[in-house]
Amino acid sequence: GGGGDEGQVELPLQPLAHLAHVRLAALTAGLEYTRVDVFSYLHRGLNTNHTQFGVPLGSSLGPDADMAQAWISWRPRPAVRLTVEAMALRDGERDVETLESVIDAGNPDFPSGVVQRERRLGVEAWGMLPGYGVEGSLRVSAHDLTDIDHEPGRDGTFWTAEVGLRMRHVFASGGARSVR
Length: 180
Known about the structure:
Helix content: 10-25%
Number of strands: 8
Largest sheet: 6 strands, antiparallel
């Protein structure tokens, strides 16, 4: 035919766009960074620390540390989720222990001293059978640590595996029937 259309192929764009939309709708991704300065949490007494209804506020990292996390989850079906996650953590020696030592510390490096580093990569599969009240998960991760407990040259790689299973059953009393 005329018009210069020779050698061109038309692709059905609607099915491709729909397929990409379904796959993107089932994805969840996240990225998080937390840094806690060396001077944080120096108010350690019960009468001077920062609390909310008696619970100390802050991060589980403690002072002189930072952590970056990233994850992506895919739900191919509503009751199935696959997740890949990565984490990197740096933990300083926390050489500033008291309010009085702040003046002596000046402006320490961040993180300070011999820095323990941890890198983790993990995968998790989770699934549920809602009609039967069964939920299960399998998680495998590798941890690579350097300068463990702030001791230079003390390094290690560790693997962990976790298996979880939860079952729920509703017991009926008297003449009631079990609900499934």
